[in-house]
Amino acid sequence: MTSLPGGSEDSGSASEPRPLVCARCGTTADGPRPTWICSVENGVRQYFCDTCSRDNLRAIEGRLDSAWW
Predict the structure, then answer these.
(1) Which residues have C-beta within 8 Å of that of residue 9, sequence separation ≥ 6?
(2) Domain-by-domain residue ranges, the chain?
């Protein structure tokens, strides 16, 4: 089973997905944001806006094996 952006697999609600909220700065997406990134940390999905993603790109790349970048 896959979940919709902003939702969780165990929410049990099939109505409307919740809006995306940046886990770092709290910005709320107005709609689907293909430039946002999703990270699964300790089994929890977290979304980061494009501004926070760009500001922290070096830290994100630093966690990846060099084969990924």
Answers:
(1) 1, 2, 3
(2) 19-63
